[in-house]
Write a structure and sequence with these properties.
- The complex is a heterodimer of chains A (81) and B (174).
- By secondary structure, chain A is an alpha+beta fold.
- Chain A has one domain: GMP Synthetase, Chain A, domain 3.
- Chain A has 3 helices and 3 strands; from the N terminus they run αββααβ.
- Chain A has a 3-stranded mixed beta sheet.
- In chain A, strand 1 and strand 2 form a beta hairpin.
- In chain A, helix 1 runs antiparallel to helix 3.
- Chain B has 174 residues and is of the alpha+beta class.
- Chain B has 2 domains: 103 residues, K homology (KH) domain (GMP Synthetase, Chain A, domain 3, 2-Layer Sandwich); 64 residues, 2-Layer Sandwich (Ribosomal Protein S8, Chain: A, domain 1).
- Chain B contains 6 helices and 6 strands.
- In chain B, a hairpin with a 3-residue loop joins strand 1 and strand 2.
- In chain B, helix 2 packs across helix 4 and helix 5 packs across helix 6.
- Classes of the chains: A alpha+beta (81), B alpha+beta (174).
- The interface between A and B is medium-sized, with 27 and 20 residues.
Chain lengths: 81, 174
Amino acid sequence: MSNVTLRELVEFISKALVDQPDDVEVSEIAGEQTIVLELRVAKEDLGKVIGKQGRTVKAMRAILNAASSKLKKRADLEILE
Amino acid sequence: MNDKQTSEPSPDNAADAADLQERITEAVPVVRSFLETVLGLMGVEVEVDIDEEENGLHCDLNTSDEEGGLLIGRHGATLDSLQYLTLRVLQAEGLGRMRITLDVGGYRGRREKALRDKVKDVVRRVKDSGRPYHFDPMSAMERRVVHMAITEHDGLRTESEGEGRRRHVVVFPS
């Protein structure tokens, strides 16, 4: 399905979680089998997207995996500091 | 930490209850717009039904069986993740703590029934053997179902052990 937009998905969820949505940046690096998504947020918002024991980023990865399975690809979310 | 006490928001008085009701009502459009956008970006066609309940919101995600399976994920992992993020978004919006339940095609009910059946077997086993039984790790919500179901049986007590993704219910003879 072509209407799956992983970059926008990560961006939307991240913006909904942080205090400074304007500082959210997501870049998508598409490989043959894997799509790497790099997320940058304001320093003070890092905890918001990572969560206690990494629970928030883990939840985002689970949703990405579900979405990317429709594209028959793997998605990998990395948070850049 | 005891799941029985921590997972249930218990309003201390009428003022808190009124505040909770107000927050629940305010949360409806926030939750709807979050879920509809996320599901849309996931490429899933879905209709979101939201019901206000005493302690929070119950959201039914109505979709085809195939898309439903995708939304539930392995052992409910995708659905639980979506539910967790919805809760975090409400917190980010300043709407605080409440119970959010996401369901797809009655999955939560089927899973709860399966857990209750399992509890019956475990109760018998612990009573017969006199030895503790360790459940597989499960989410806070599912551990709560197990704790509650065991309290319906005399002569047994439960605790949660392990941290993070290994956290699980243990049933002890007492």
